[in-house]
């Protein structure tokens, strides 16, 4: 390869002179890039939405008390004082269903950059009483400002507050509210497992679109939950969020060896969802690989045609002293430029399409207007799409370029 | 009396045999001669006599099976492909039967193409000379035209000017008038001859046309791969009187 004024100027002129063919190839590359950006973003968005809807707005990783109380291996008979682990002990007493020293753990997880949200939670089932009616509901007592980064309810509020929900107030789903005829500021009575009663005010009504959250879930402040479940200052679990929710199981596995708790990820809790998404991803990847290969063939076919039609000119250039690496470079530059310009067209087109899709809002079954597509434009994906297209463009150009470099000037001179 | 000048090209004991599978086809046998600066040499011979093979070996486009090729006193027959390309780029010019101008480039850009290979500074430095040469051959008004807008004779004149772009020591022309009508052929031939006279660049032209051959300074006759008559080198200018 030899990038020079000569090779660059000849490559540029070839592309400009065959502008029709160049534009067609650029179009193929642009469509491929657009497809990568569009499919990955929209399908990725719908996958996140599926996970949210099926699994509820849940932490990616849940850290909760172990089923058995961990006991220091050094305390077991026959072990040296510095023994850390000897195997599984199964006949130990049941652990208490709470984490006492949660503040230290929340602080420790908070220092770990892979966790984007660390939320202490008191979780359990309680009875909701409204007049003579009652229903068992799932309760999550949280620090609303922190936990909103997990459940994202503030944006789904129909009325009231979530992030600034004060003690003594609850946020409930609109379906639960409708079922009981509850309105904002109404009083409700909650009864815990130990018949502990708490009267609360409805401070927020939300509609997330996730059935489990809207139908039988309520949120209240951490201290109210601790009181209702008689946990004192302890909590039930710590919820963690990470950047890539599909990495949850890998992160959970790594965490298991570091903490004396049971650690589970949303993936192990919802294996069918994960497998559905995984198979969907494989299918999309196959489509995308096929698309990009088709773009590569497009570039290769244009350059093969170019090498064939410019056979004589290439021979004359070689006779005049152009070296094989220079001839090869001319065609590799052409493939590279076709791919780069294809990206320069395809990526802005992809972004424009995604922005247009993101602005589409339609009424949902609950009557609320929502975005039809969950779109989050990822600069990393754009860079990936461009990188793939340019790499494929250069590889596709390489073979016609090598063919051009091998043209024997004598065969041109002989007129064959 | 021995000629003390350094020949622009010297061939010694050149043999060429093409091998295809088990079949060996000898084409040239013990060919040797010297071409001196400013000479206008015609190589003539019948079809299949080996004259084009000889020209290709002189132009470092083909390798001899035996013998040596020296360009300005330097042996070049043992160079690799890169080295041969560099010698072609720096010291040799080519004119072919078919002009093969690059259709994407204008007349002046085509003429400057060998300079472009050497870099933008070299190209810029040579542009005035090439403009003057194109003007001299009657194409001064067509510098910005594409080759497709020129006649065959005009295109071949551009190819002749292009062969001089890199200030070569030797221009090799393979049937440069073979594809032109007689009037255009005459114009191109006269042009080559006058450029050779004015520039001191040696021209070697393979031709079928006896009329043109007779007007050359020297005629090398080749028959069945052997030099029948090497001609007499034109004397150095000091000896010419």
Q: Overview of this structure, please?
A:
The complex is a heterodimer of chains A (416) and B (241). Chain A is an alpha+beta fold and 416 residues long. Chain A has 2 domains: 5-53 and 274-413, no CATH class; 58-81 and 92-268, no CATH class. Chain A has helices at 5-17, 19-55, 102-111, 144-151, 174-180, 211-216, 222-228, 248-256, 266-269, 271-309, 311-319, 324-358, 379-405, 409-413; strands at 61-64, 115-130, 133-142, 157-160, 169-173, 187-191, 197-206, 217-221, 237-242, 262-265, 361-363, 369-371. A 6-stranded mixed β-barrel of chain A has the order 2-3-8-5-7-6, surrounded by 4 helices. In chain A, strands 11-12 form a two-stranded antiparallel sheet. In chain A, strand 11 (361-363) and strand 12 (369-371) form a beta hairpin. In chain A, helix 10 (271-309) packs across helix 12 and helix 12 (324-358) packs antiparallel against helix 13 (379-405). Chain A is elongated. Chain B has a single domain (37-64, 78-231), classed as P-loop containing nucleotide triphosphate hydrolases (Rossmann fold). Chain B is built from 8 helices and 10 strands. In chain B, the strands form 2 sheets. Chain B has a 6-stranded mixed sheet with strand order 6-7-8-3-9-10. Chain B has a 4-stranded antiparallel sheet with strand order 2-1-4-5, with helices on one face. In chain B, helix 7 links the parallel strand 7 and strand 8 (202-206). In chain B, helix 6 packs parallel to helix 7. The radius of gyration of chain B is 18 Å and the shape is globular. Chain B starts with 8 loop residues before the first strand and ends in a 12-residue tail after the last strand. The model of chain B has no long low-confidence stretch (mean pLDDT 88). Classes of the chains: A alpha+beta (416), B alpha/beta (241). At the A-B interface, helix 1, helix 11 and helix 14 of A face helix 2 and helix 4 of B.
């Amino acid at each position: 390869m030899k990038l020079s004024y000569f090779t660059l100027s000849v490559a540029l002129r070839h592309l400009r002179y065959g502008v029709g063919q160049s534009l067609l190839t650029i179009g193929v590359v642009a469509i491929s890039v657009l497809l990568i950006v569009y499919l990955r973003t929209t399908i990725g968005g719908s996958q996140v939405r599926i996970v949210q809807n099926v699994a509820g707005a849940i932490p990616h990783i849940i850290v909760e008390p172990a089923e058995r109380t961990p006991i220091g291996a050094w305390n077991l008979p026959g072990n040296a004082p510095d023994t850390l682990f000897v195997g599984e002990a199964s006949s130990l007493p049941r652990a208490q269903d709470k984490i006492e020293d949660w503040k230290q753990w929340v602080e420790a997880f908070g220092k770990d950059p892979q966790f984007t949200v660390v939320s202490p939670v008191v979780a359990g089932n309680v009875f909701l009483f409204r007049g003579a009616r009652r229903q068992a509901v799932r309760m999550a007592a949280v620090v609303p400002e922190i936990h909103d980064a997990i459940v994202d309810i503030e944006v789904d509020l129909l009325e009231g507050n979530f992030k600034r929900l004060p003690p003594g107030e609850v946020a409930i789903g609109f379906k639960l509210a409708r079922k009981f005829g509850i309105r904002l500021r109404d009083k409700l009575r909650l009864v815990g497992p130990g018949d502990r009663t708490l009267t609360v005010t409805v401070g927020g009504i939300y509609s997330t679109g996730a059935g489990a959250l809207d139908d039988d879930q309520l949120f209240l402040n951490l201290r109210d939950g601790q009181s209702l479940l008689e946990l004192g200052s302890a909590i039930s679990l710590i919820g963690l969020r990470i950047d890539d929710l599909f990495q949850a199981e890998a992160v959970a596995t790594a965490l298991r060896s570091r903490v004396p708790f049971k650690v589970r990820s949303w993936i192990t809790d919802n294996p069918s969802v994960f497998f559905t998404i995984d198979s969907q991803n494989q299918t999309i990847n196959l489509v995308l690989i096929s698309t990009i290969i088709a773009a590569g063939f497009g570039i290769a076919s244009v350059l093969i045609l170019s090498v064939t039609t410019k056979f004589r000119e290439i021979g004359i250039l070689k006779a005049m002293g152009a070296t094989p690496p220079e001839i090869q470079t001319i065609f590799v530059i052409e493939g590279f430029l076709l791919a780069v310009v294809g990206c320069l067209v395809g990526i802005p087109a992809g972004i424009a399409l995604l922005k247009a899709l993101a602005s589409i809002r339609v009424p949902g079954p609950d009557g609320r207007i929502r975005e039809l597509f969950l779109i989050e434009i990822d600069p990393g994906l754009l860079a990936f799409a461009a990188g793939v297209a340019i790499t494929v463009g250069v590889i596709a150009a390489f073979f016609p370029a090598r063919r051009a470099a091998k043209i024997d000037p004598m065969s041109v001179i002989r007129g064959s | 009396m021995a000629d003390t000048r350094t020949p622009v090209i010297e061939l010694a004991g050149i043999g060429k045999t093409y091998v295809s599978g088990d079949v060996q086809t000898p084409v040239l046998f013990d060919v040797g001669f010297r071409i001196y600066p400013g000479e206008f040499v015609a190589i003539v011979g019948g079809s299949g006599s080996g004259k084009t093979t000889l020209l290709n070996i002189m132009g470092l486009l083909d390798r001899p099976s035996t013998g040596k090729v020296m360009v300005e006193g330097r042996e070049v027959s043992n160079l690799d492909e890169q080295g041969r390309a560099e010698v072609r780029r720096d010291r040799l010019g080519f004119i072919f039967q078919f002009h093969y101008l690059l259709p994407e480039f204008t007349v002046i850009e085509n003429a400057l193409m060998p300079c472009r290979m050497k870099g933008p500074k070299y190209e810029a430095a040579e542009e005035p000379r090439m403009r003057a040469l194109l003007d001299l051959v009657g194409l001064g008004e067509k510098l910005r035209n594409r080759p497709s807008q020129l006649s065959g004779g005009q295109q071949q004149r551009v190819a002749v000017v292009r062969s001089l772009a890199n200030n070569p020591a030797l221009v090799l022309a393979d049937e440069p008038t073979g594809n032109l009508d007689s009037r255009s052929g005459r114009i191109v031939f006269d042009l080559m001859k006058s450029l050779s006279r004015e520039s001191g660049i040696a021209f070697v032209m393979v031709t079928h046309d006896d009329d043109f051959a007779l007007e050359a300074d020297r005629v090398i006759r080749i028959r069945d791969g052997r030099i029948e008559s090497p001609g007499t080198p034109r004397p150095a200018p000091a000896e010419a009187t």
